[in-house]
Amino acid sequence: MRQVDLTQTIEELEGVYWDKPDFDSSLVIKVHRLRKKPICELDKEDLRLLIGQQMNLDLLLPLALEELTQNPFASGDLYIGDLFSSVLQVKQEYWIEHQDLKNELDEVIGIYEDTANMIDGKISKYRSGQL
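Given the sequence above, the corresponding structure tokens read:
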């Protein structure tokens, strides 16, 4: 992965500056705004939204995977685990072409599965009265 100056914006890193939105939807307006926000200021919701739109994946997926490695349940504003869900919706072709990131995703999936199995076991014990 290339080194990125996280104080720069998506527009600065791409060298592509979008005009004002010509479509009046909250999603379009928010994406335009996020392109002008320094990468280091993007939060989980911002990452979820941009990745959900399949935007700037080479730049944003490493940041999302770093968050998810720490906590696969990391969330934006929709629901618990919505960031993970957005990452899992990235097209398979992308992962084939980016094996290093696929390996990181596989690690996150493993962390999630281990955690889910542990919690499932505790739920089973709780429901059966074995606590």
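The chain has a mean pLDDT of 93. Try to locate this feature in the token string yourself.
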